[in-house]
Write a structure and sequence with these properties.
single chain, mainly beta, four-stranded antiparallel sheet, globular
């Protein structure tokens, strides 16, 4: 069974960098052909895909967030992280990590099969 757990500060000041880590157990983040995603949900709004790091370390980001988003991984700890710089109150959301298929997987369907419970991040001074 795959478990994902988000962690990081729940409060970030405007202009600072939001940093979150997703710890993964039950599967290696280097297993073909999976990808490891960050998704967020602002209060009262729908889910927004933030970005992903694939099993081989390739990253992709939402076009609207690309300029200030970085996803990295630590394979020795089997975890991956999100850094979102220059945050504003519009970045306030519940942030989730989730497993999906790599886009190049032959049966890619864009779905996420395992999710973390999510962690609330508030951007406020």
């Amino acid at each position: 069974q795959v478990h994902l757990q988000e962690s990081g500060p729940g409060l970030v000041k405007p202009s600072q960098t939001l940093s979150l880590t997703c710890a993964v157990s039950g599967d290696s983040i280097t297993t073909k052909y999976y990808a490891w995603n960050w998704i967020r949900q602002p209060p009262g709004k729908g889910l927004e895909w933030v970005g992903v790091i694939a099993y081989d370390g390739t990253t992709y980001y939402s076009p609207s967030l690309k300029s200030r988003t970085s996803i990295s991984r630590d394979t020795s700890k089997n975890q991956f992280s999100l850094q979102l710089s220059s945050v504003t109150p519009e970045d306030t959301a519940k942030y989730y990590c989730a497993r999906g298929r790599d886009i190049n997987y032959s049966n890619y369907n864009g779905e996420f099969d395992y999710w973390g419970q999510g962690t609330q991040v508030t951007v406020s001074s």
